[in-house]
From TrEMBL:
Protein name stated in the entry: CCA tRNA nucleotidyltransferase
Pfam families per UniProt: PolyA_pol (PF01743), PolyA_pol_RNAbd (PF12627)
Annotated source species: hydrothermal vent metagenome
Keyword tRNA processing: yes
Keywords noted in UniProt: ATP-binding, Magnesium, Metal-binding, Nucleotide-binding, Nucleotidyltransferase, RNA repair, RNA-binding, Transferase, tRNA processing
Xref: Gene3D superfamilies: Beta Polymerase, domain 2, cca-adding enzyme, domain 2
Domain Poly A polymerase head: 3-122
GO molecular function: ATP binding; CCA tRNA nucleotidyltransferase activity; metal ion binding; RNA binding
Top-level class of the enzyme under EC nomenclature: transferase
Alphabetical list of PANTHER family matching this protein: MULTIFUNCTIONAL CCA PROTEIN
Length: 383
């Protein structure tokens, strides 16, 4: 039995990047041998075991065979006679198909180190085309390693285009698309996730709203520059690490010439399609809906904006919304600071602040609103 460190841990180690998690492949062992050594089996489709102490995942070397469309149509074969090379060839990219022995020896049968040096995302074998999730993974890796100059190999892009033409991308489930997009949003060059999908024709199928931005921008279509929405997403990465804000910036910047109602409908349709968490949707909708309110000095309008984002209960959405609108240039940083001051001062108002202690029920709420409006007006007049 031999054990090898594989995948992202080896790749990131070679790139001198922090290694967040380690995956292992075990060659020449049976499930029973792993159990006898104290490992706990957790894999359902194929044997994966948790180390008794580190709880890291150890998978038996395996091969796989395509049996149906999409990314779930596979049969797996895990046995003691499966070699390391057979296990590595089923992986998506050469940079993820490098193994390291317990003695520190690198096993790189498919040229992963050369591709790392060249900044190239290249598929290991034609079997890449059997799993449509790999299209998303390549796009996500392009986003993650874009700052280091990585790009998709021409033959890999051609293979991805064929996969799209064959309808493989249509089998992707919403949750997996969002999972890969969410990871891409957390990278230093999140816009590359979409440019790669555009380059292989998958953008029109998965994100037609963003593909439309290419069609309305001839320069972007010719790769001379990005659509405005992707430029905004790129710029947001330099100003915040919050993926909620980055996602909101992208959607706020889409179709700016449309009505507020149309833009909200587009945002809601995209989020519904990929079952995107509600807090992401709420922030994007709030930023679109309130981008005019927060530029107005009408105390009532500003108070309604704060109330609609529940700023007095949980300021998270309000603060994110201000940051989003700052990045999209609807307000400047000075205005954002002023509005934050307005929120803090008005949020201190409660029933105890009211002079008329005889008020009850809805009258208390109305009086609190009135006092908050006066405070907001007072702060604005001082500017």
């Amino acid at each position: 039995m031999k054990i090898y460190l594989v995948g992202g841990a080896v790749r990131d180690k070679l790139l001198k990047l922090p290694v967040s998690e380690r995956d292992w492949v075990v060659v020449g062992a049976s499930p029973q041998e792993m159990l006898d050594l104290g490992y706990k089996q957790v894999g359902k489709d194929f044997p994966v075991f948790l180390h008794p102490e580190t709880k890291e995942e150890y998978a038996l070397a395996r091969t796989e065979r395509k049996t149906g469309p999409g990314y779930t149509g596979f049969d797996f074969h895990a046995a003691a006679d499966v070699t390391l090379e057979e296990d590595l060839v089923r992986r998506d990219l050469t940079i993820n198909a490098i193994a390291e022995s317990t003695e520190g020896e690198l096993i790189d049968p498919y040229g992963g180190q050369d591709d790392l040096a060249a900044g190239r995302l290249r598929h290991v074998s034609p079997a890449f085309s059997e799993d449509p999730v790999r299209v998303l993974r390549v796009a996500r890796f392009a986003a993650r390693f874009g700052q280091y100059g990585f790009s998709v190999a021409h033959d890999t892009n051609a293979l991805m285009r064929n996969m799209v033409a064959d309808g493989e991308v249509n089998h992707l489930v919403p949750e997996r698309v969002w999972a890969e997009l969410c990871k891409a949003l957390a990278t230093d060059t999140p816009e590359k996730f979409f440019t790669v999908l555009h380059g292989c024709n998958a953008l029109t199928i998965l994100f037609p709203e963003i593909a439309a931005a290419y069609e309305s921008n001839s320069g972007a279509h010719k790769a001379q520059n990005l659509p405005a929405a992707l430029e905004a997403l790129r710029d947001s990465a330099a100003k915040t690490n919050d993926t909620h804000i980055r996602f909101a910036v992208l959607l706020v910047s889409l179709q700016p010439d449309q009505t507020t109602e149309q833009r909200i409908a587009t945002t809601e349709a995209l989020c519904k399609r990929f079952r995107i968490p509600g807090d992401y949707l709420k922030l994007a909708v709030s930023a679109i809906q309130l981008e005019r309110n927060i530029t107005d000095n009408n105390p009532e309008e500003l108070l309604e904006a704060m109330e609609s984002t529940r700023a007095f209960n949980d300021p998270t959405c309000w603060n994110r919304m201000l940051k989003t609108c700052t990045i999209t240039h609807h307000i400047d940083s000075a205005r954002a600071e002023l509005l934050d001051t307005v929120k803090q001062k008005s949020s201190s108002v409660n029933a105890a602040c009211l002079e008329d202690k005889s008020l009850k029920g809805p009258a208390v709420g109305a009086a609190i609103r009135e006092l908050r409006c006066r405070i907001i007006e007072s702060i604005l007049l001082q500017q």
